[in-house]
Task: inverse folding
């Protein structure tokens, strides 16, 4: 089912968010707009739903799923600790195009793939995504496309690739330029940028107050 959530029809938006929240809670997949490209998501704590997401994309466990959150504080319950540099980056760039890799809390009952004890978290700058995340909690979210195909920049583009594997499509209009998030790994002794995207290397370095390396 496709719901138009990008216009002025509040009733359609609310109906879409309610349907998407219900789908996530029942272990189904949803497509949602984000500030980069459209995302394919599910409950981060439902291992069967996570496997369904990987299957829908044709993606292996060797590429673990990132987690989207709806607030700054949510990350505190997901990771072992939030170091000072992570706090600085969150305050500077969330919501927005910066993903942070941290050791996840060992007590969490989830299976996002072969994560080696880490989790990549981000808060997206999109009102529909944030509203859904605040309703259902952290979601495992990947780009809404089949593996090896271009990420979808519209809900219809996502539907053409993913079809009936998705219960609810939230159509927020075209996503704009498909710029990937910048990924900063804070699991080591020094910040390491795994991918430079929406946030520049120089901006990351300025915020954390130290030289930042780009992974080779």
Result:
């Amino acid at each position: 089912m496709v719901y138009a959530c990008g216009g002025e029809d509040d009733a359609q938006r609310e109906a879409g968010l309610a349907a998407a929240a219900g789908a996530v809670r029942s272990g189904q997949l949803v497509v949602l707009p984000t500030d980069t490209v459209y995302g394919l998501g599910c409950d981060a704590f439902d291992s069967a739903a996570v496997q369904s997401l990987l299957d829908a994309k044709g993606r292996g466990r060797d590429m673990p799923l990132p987690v989207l959150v709806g607030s700054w504080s949510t990350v505190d319950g997901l990771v072992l600790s939030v170091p000072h540099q992570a706090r600085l980056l969150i305050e500077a760039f969330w919501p927005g195009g910066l993903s942070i890799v941290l050791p996840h809390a060992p007590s969490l009952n989830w299976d996002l793939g072969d994560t080696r004890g880490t989790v990549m978290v981000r808060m997206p700058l999109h009102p529909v995504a944030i509203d859904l995340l605040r309703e259902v909690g952290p979601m495992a979210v990947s780009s809404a496309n089949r593996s090896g195909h271009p990420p979808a920049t519209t809900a219809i583009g996502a539907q053409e690739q993913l079809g009936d594997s998705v219960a609810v499509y939230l159509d927020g209009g075209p996503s704009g330029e498909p710029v990937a998030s910048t990924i900063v790994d804070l699991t080591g002794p020094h910040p390491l940028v795994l991918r430079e995207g929406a946030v520049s290397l120089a901006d990351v370095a300025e915020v954390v107050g130290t030289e930042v390396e780009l992974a080779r």
User: Anything to note?
Assistant: Residues 10-25 form the longest helix (16 residues).
